[in-house]
Each structure stands twice: as C-alpha cells, then as structure tokens.
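Below is how a single chain appears once it has passed through the pipeline. First comes the sequence as given, then the structure the pipeline wrote out for it. We keep one example in the README because the format questions we get most often are answered faster by looking than by reading.
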Amino acid sequence: MEQEETRRKPTVRGMWEEILRLVYPPKCVFCGALLERAEQDACKPCLAELPWTDTHSAVQTGRAFSQCVSPFFLTGKVHQALVDYKYHQRESYGVCFGRWMGDCACRCLSDAFDLVTWVPVSRKRLRKRGFDQARYLAGSLCVEWHVEPQETLRKILDNPPQSGLEDTDARRANVLGAYEIVDPELIEGKRVLLIDDVITTGATISECARLLRTFGAADVVCATLARAH
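Resulting structure:
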C-alpha cells in the first residue's frame, strides 16, 4: 500500500515539467499547433503526412561513403522546417531532428561506425548564422547513445552556398579544398558516421567522406535529416 502511495506522488522533475508545459506549451515543429499531452515534437496530422522514407529509400550509396541514411525526403513541411531551423533561429528543432536521424541510423546502419562527426560550417558562416546546424544535429543524435560527437573536420574556405548551384559538377568544384582534417590519429582505422542536415547531389558529403578516407578512416557512413527525391 505504501509503495502504491509513493508511486502516486509527483516527482520534482514531473512537477517542473508540468510548470514548463504551462509556461511554454510545446508546439508542432511543422505547423505550430499546440501539442496534446500524448504528442511529442509534431502533431498527429503532420506526422501522418510527412514525406517519410521507407526501408529502401532511406538508404543511398556513394563513391566516397558506403551508405547515407535519411528519415525524410526534402520536400513540403520538412523542407520548410529545415529552412526555419537554419535561417530563422529555430535551433531547438535540432533536438527532434537529431532524434529522428538517430532512429533511422539505428534501423539502417546497425553498429557500422565507431565515432560520430559532422560536416562543419566556415567561421564566417558560423558568425552570421550563430550556430553550426550539423554539429547541433550530431549532438542531439548522440544524446540517446550516451556518446560525444568528435570534431574531425574543419572548414577553411567560405565558399558560396551549395543551394545556389544546380549543376552537380559545379557543386563538386565548389567544395573541393574547402575542408581539412583536424586530427588524423582520431580517425585512423575507424568507421565514421558523418552527419549533415541534407543530401541532394551528395557533393558536400562526398568531399568530406573522401577526405576522411584519405586520412585513414576505414569506412564512412552518413546520416542526414532529409534527402532529395
């Protein structure tokens, strides 16, 4: 009887969460609607219509990386949420984005990696945007795994955004020489999971993966929130 009474008593953490819920009611990251108590991150209507990938379409292969997995296609509400995340001060979206990416990586990649890293932005882009979106995603993804993402790459060239280039060859040329390895010993012989927000032509991820492989990584697999059709 005493044990049942103990279970019924609200915990300090539970009370604090209730207060936060009242002061800052959680909203759907895709439509902004207030979430029901049983909902997390997104409302049921949005979840039902999001452009989810399936077991087959979630996985891509590349020249420098063996696999890249993505839980969504880059369209509709997912595309807009990513724009808001990167350019409209919605850094908090990275928490659920990372969680969805982590779930996808666990389903599709199993234990095919030894460390997690990310595609970095340049110092100039970091000052302008205020945060590194891929680093946030890597950190959020790693929370559930109880590991720390490792910095393996540094962007040394503030090249034009890839989004402004439609030609695949132009995108490849745009990122050539844009990155350098931070510590070759960290990646030597390791299977690396490389994180970025999106993959379209794959030019950026391929260049980073090529560099990691050149400096000793045994394999590179990747995860992004969304992929192009």
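The beta strands are 59-60, 67-69, 72-73, 115-118, 153-155, 179-181, 191-199, 219-227.

See the next section for the split statistics.
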